Amino acid sequence: MAQVKNGDTVKIHYTGKLEDDTLFDSSVNREPLQFTLGEGKIIPGFEKAVIGMNPGESKNVKIPPDQAYGSHRQELVAEIERDRFPENMRLEVDETINLRQPDGRIVSVKIVNMTETRITLDANHPLAGRELSFDIKLVEIV
Fold first, then answer.
1. For the chain, N or C: smaller number of CB within 10 Å?
2. pLDDT tens across 22-73, in order?
């Protein structure tokens, strides 16, 4: 039976949970996730977990932050003067908003705190600094 190796395109089903068993994503009840190992489109720890699997095989893996979305980086948290936002813009703590960078790129940031004069924004990935747990089932090697 063929085992997954770097460069293979695979279809997998997965369920991702946080340390406290909170579900954050799942492909169950959707089409399987398809990707090619080695392209870097999937977090490194997930790719490593799939290598060596056989079609039909299932496993559970824990992926530390350095093999997932990285550590939470304080330099990606910034306080901005509230008056730099349009007056009619709806702003709420825990809301994610998109900001245009000077180079034209769009960056998603989470509002983590607000005062009358300042807004604290966090540009870290929402799962940065978290250990992730995945139930993975290899559906097929394409």
1. N
2. 999 999 999 999 999 999 999 999 999 999 999 999 999 999 999 999 999 9
Side chain identity at residue 140, one-letter code: E
Residue 4 has pLDDT above 80, yes or no: yes
Provide the b/e sequence for 51-79 (b: ≥16 CB within 10 Å). Answer: eebeeeeeeebebebebbbeeeeeeebee
Structure confidence by residue, pLDDT tens digits, 77-136: 999 999 998 888 889 999 999 988 889 999 999 999 999 899 999 999 999 999 999 999
Give all strands (DSSP E) within 1-142, no chain letters.
Answer: 9-17, 23-26, 33-36, 58-63, 77-81, 96-100, 106-114, 118-122, 132-141
Please answer whether residues 110 and 93 qualify as being in contact, where contact means their C-beta atoms are separated by less than 8 angstroms: no
Class of domain 9-70+127-141: alpha beta
Could you tell me the pTM of the whole model? Answer: 0.81
In CATH, the number for domain 74-122 is 2.40.10.330
